[in-house]
Design goal:
Elements: H1 3-6, H2 24-32, H3 38-55, H4 63-77, H5 81-113, H6 116-131, H7 138-150, H8 155-164
Helix pairs in contact: 2-3, 2-5, 3-4, 3-5, 3-6, 3-7, 4-5, 4-6, 6-7, 6-8
């Protein structure tokens, strides 16, 4: 049985009460991860989407940000590189097409699935993606802060993660 069918993602099977938890974005990526355990596939889909959300915050997802996302998805999921590339490409497309409506919903879904340790790991990954091009723009920094709040992480959690990448913060760079 496919991941999509197991999770009730096929048309007409999703109830209106589960609509916010099972977003279209996650469903599309989950279909590509059909060989994985359903819960693991949902986790990887949401993780990849959140990486894309931050990369796209400045309206441009650079090649180095994409490469960093692919590397992180391979490391997290254990997927072969070609599948991780596909997951990242789908996540980037979904973030571009539906970011305004899906951002909060996907973050809430990730929040429900992830442990505190996984949320903190994601926070580090978000900074790594945004720093991949050697600069974390103010808008990327704000997006990461917003995600941290949506994941119910503390301000200190955010600051601790941010400190590691302080040399990349555009606001602190002298021009």
């Amino acid at each position: 049985m496919s991941v999509a069918k197991l999770l009730g993602f096929l048309r007409g099977e999703a109830s209106s009460s589960s609509a916010s938890a099972n977003t279209e974005t996650v469903r599309k990526i989950v279909r590509e991860l059909d060989q994985m355990d359903p819960e693991r596939a949902r986790y990887v889909a949401a993780f990849a989407y959140l990486l894309s959300r931050v990369a796209r915050a400045d309206m441009n997802i650079s090649e180095v940000e994409t490469a960093e996302m692919e590397k992180l998805v391979v490391r997290l999921s254990g997927l072969p590189e070609d599948q991780a590339i596909l997951v990242v490409q789908i996540a980037k497309s979904q973030a571009t097409l539906f970011g305004g409506t899906e951002n909060y919903l996907v973050t809430q879904e990730f929040n429900k699935m992830a442990s505190q340790e996984q949320k903190l790991s994601l926070l580090q990954c978000l900074f790594a993606v945004s720093a991949a091009d050697q600069s974390i723009s103010n808008v990327e920094d704000r997006e990461i802060r917003e995600i941290a709040e949506e994941l119910q992480l503390t301000h200190q959690d955010f600051i601790n993660a941010r400190l590691i990448y302080k040399d990349y913060l555009a606001v602190l760079k002298s021009e």
